[in-house]
Amino acid sequence: MTTRCLIADDQAMVREGFAAVLAAQPGLLVVGQAADGADAVRQTRHLQPDVVLMDVRMPVMDGLQATRQILGAAAGQERPRVVMLTTFDLDDYVYEALRAGASGFLLKDATAAELVHAVRVVAAGDALLAPSVTRRLIADFARRPRLDPPFPATLGALTHRESEVLRLIARGLSNAEISDTLVIAEQTTKTYVGRILAKLDLRDRAQAVVLAYETGLVTPGGSGPARTNPDTGPQQ
């Protein structure tokens, strides 16, 4: 199966360099290049790529706004996965990009192998969240005013073990690390992650991290308060 890619960056050398690397890989096809966010939105709607590599800072429309428009398509429409391109992994837009629906981040100085890996990972339905990015996300939440959002009914559908796994995902642990922590097989962890995403109607781990913090299931610096679901009682 061929993965269709679109590259959006205002620097021609970045676009052409990424395009050359991806075009040389089996199963990857570069269907378009955009020099600004507005053009990225137009081309995405016309070309329907599977993965969009999106620069954060671009003229006309920045990458965040473009991502919101692309991923805010009407229900039922096929949406691509978006990987944000950043100059360094402590970009100020980390939290907003994840909220906008981005599936992860890629540094512009990434190696060819890292670029190809990133595209294949998100095309397969996973998220690309380096530990440094997850730490920044946690720090962002720590600086925000403490809110008490209502308990989402969907979280009540999770079993105790699934809630444990979701908390560990939100801490930035990989499947292997979660397996070690809970003393379970890695394939079992993968099964739990799949169930969590399906029950919560999430596309990938990036969305799971955001949801865990926004709902208060996990809080920065702690394991998260017990949240009470009126139907199922305390969620530990």
The low-confidence parts are 223-236
Assembly state (oligomeric): single chain
Give Rg in angstroms.
18 Å
Into which percentage range does the β-strand content fall? 5-15%
CATH class of the largest domain: Alpha Beta
CATH superfamily of the largest domain: Response regulator
Output the helix-strand order: EHEHEHEHEHHHHHHEE
User: What is the molecular shape?
Assistant: globular
Strand order of the largest sheet: 2-1-3-4-5
**Structural class computed from helices and strand pairing:** alpha/beta
Can you give the helix content as a percent range?
A: 40-55%
Number of domains: 2
How many individual β-strands?
Answer: 7
> Largest sheet, if any?
5 strands, parallel
State the CATH architecture of the largest domain: 3-Layer(aba) Sandwich
What CATH calls the topology of the largest domain is Rossmann fold
